[in-house]
Amino acid sequence: MNAPTVALLQEVVRRESLSMLTYVGEAFPWTPPREADTLSRVKQLVAEHNEVVTGLGRYLTSLRHPLTFLGSYPSSFTTINFLSLSYILGQLVVAERTGVAALERDLAALHDKDAHIRLEHLLHVKKKHLETLEFLAASHTTPAAS
User: Fold this and answer.
1) Contact, 52 vs 21, CB < 8 A?
2) How confident is the model at residue 54, as a pLDDT?
3) Is residue 86 in a domain?
4) CATH number of the domain encompassing residue 7
5) Is the pLDDT of residue 143 over 80?
6) Residue 82 pLDDT grade (very low, low, confident, very high; cuts 50, 70, 90)
């Protein structure tokens, strides 16, 4: 695996490890009891996402390419602490759309077949999660007052 491919994969691991979805998994969105199932579903998405990202990191380390320093979450994420789950779902949809687009650009620049397969898997999972988040967000949208 060449150096640009390693650098790209390390950047993907860093970016996805610090995604809004991962952050929400560590935050405490305000959730009324009737939305407990939705919160549970979001936490399941977070766990699946983290599992795929961890697998990509393990793949790199198995090839003796250490992970770089991940850094910290963007400070803008702190504005979603303790907000309602309904609000956060909309924010997650926007963030995941951005993440899918970034991953599609990464795939277009990637020429290593094995690395390409692994990123395609991550993209597939992110698209599936985006669909779920869009559904959850739509089901939590309150109609405008007349």
Assistant:
1) no
2) 95
3) yes
4) 1.20.1260.10
5) no
6) confident
Q: C-alpha angle 123/113/56, rounded to 5°?
A: 50
**9: closest CA among 124, 120, 143, 138?**
120
What is the C-alpha to C-alpha distance for residues 127 and 119, in angstroms, rounded to an integer?
Answer: 12
CA atoms in the 13 A half-sphere facing the CB of 32: 4
Residue 106 lies in a domain: yes
Within a domain: residue 46? yes
pTM of the model: 0.87
Count structural domains, the chain.
1
The model's pLDDT over 84-139, given as tens digits with 9 standing for 90+, comes to 888 899 999 999 999 999 999 999 999 999 999 999 999 999 999 999 999 999 98
Tokens linked to 125: 């999972």
Largest CA distance in the chain: 61
Give residue 110's domain range: 3-139
128 in any annotated domain: yes
